[in-house]
Amino acid sequence: ALLSPPCASLCLQEALQILHHSQSEACSQLCQALIVHLAPPSTDPSHSSLLAGLQDPERSRLLEATMKWVGPEQLRDLFLQLKGHLLAVANHRVANHGLQRLLDHAPEDVVQEVLSELGPVLQEPLTRGHPGVLTALAGACWRHPVLQPQALCCLLQV
Fold it and tell me: Where along the chain do its domains lie?
């Protein structure tokens, strides 16, 4: 019941932030519960429930909020559900924001894989009006200096 009304979604997002700042274990538990509910694991490898969740305007806001507060291992797990679909995510009018949140908090190995998959085709999301994907990827590479030369090459190609 707390997932669909917009004001309830905002309340859940704020609760996540408060729990994170209080360093409560409940934050991690709530994030995990939301992810499982909003993007349940799929037995079909060709279907990503996370991708479907990020494309849905209501579910995507909560998924984005959880990406801010989960740890690196959980972000890696989320990334694995998007791997191979990154261009579709980057080109989607709603889902691209979820990719940006993932990049805002992703560990170096995840950023490296995103850069490898999206780097050669960065022009597509840019021409579709999603410059935030490029900005988030550049920001993630700025946090991980070893990725900066590869990122610069990709940016210069765009």
Answer: 6-156
